[in-house]
Amino acid sequence: DAARRPASWQLGSALAGAALLTIGLEAVVPHFGIANLYYDWWEHFDLARLYHAPANLHRLYQDGYGVTSRTPLYNLLTSLPLTAFGNRFALFQVATAALAWLWILPAALLARRFLAEQSLRLVALLALSPLILFATTYGWPKGLVAFFALVALDRFLALRQAGPAQAGALAVQLGLASGLTLMTHQGFIGYL
User: Fold this and answer.
1) Is the dihedral of CA 115, 119, 125, 127 positive or negative?
2) How many CB atoms lie within 10 A of CB 9?
3) Nearest Cα to 104, choosing from 16, 176, 15?
4) HSE (side-chain half, CA atoms, 13 Å) at 167
5) Cα(133)–Cα(138) distance, rounded to whole angstroms?
6) Could you please report the per-residue DSSP string of 118-170?
7) Torsions phi, psi of 129, nearest 5?
8) Nearest CA among 77, 69, 80 for reference residue 43
9) 158 — pLDDT class (breaks 50, 70, 90)
10) For the chain, which terminus, N or C, has the lower number of CB atoms within 10 Å?
11) Which residues are within 8 A (CB) of 73 and not within 5 positions of it... i.e. 6 or more apart?
């Protein structure tokens, strides 16, 4: 256990740093209005507010999409802080940042599976990628989708190596992670 403590401390530090970086970027970089993406985050914020306080279920969003055009898990999770602390966009931003950075946990598991000692360095480098920084500071479900998809990949790889005694439990975990991926964003179905 003593050998694992430094790695878990480093992972915890990486998560805390990622959260601070995200909140800092969201505070100083006005990127929510880029191109036509403003409508995407606004739709997710509005849907989170809908789960917070149900209202008109027949509202339409950009290009005629309705309330049911988005899978519910992401918007339901981002509605929780709105319900607990108030209906404010800043709370939505913090919730989306927290959910977006969850991908680090299964990424670290997968990196450790293949790279051992270099795994945390690789995940830290990946986290600093401009694409990842954008995807984790913008109010959409991509980070949570990545979390569940990477968990599903890890469970798939574990299932391939498992004996018969562990296969059932790992298959259930794989199915659950895959299902939660689709409940977060239906666009991932093409990758399963």
Assistant:
1) positive
2) 10
3) 15
4) 5
5) 9
6) GHHHHHHHHHTSHHHHHHHHSSSTHHHHHHHHHHHHHHHHHHHH--HHHHHHH
7) -60, 135
8) 69
9) very high
10) N
11) 141, 144, 180, 183, 184
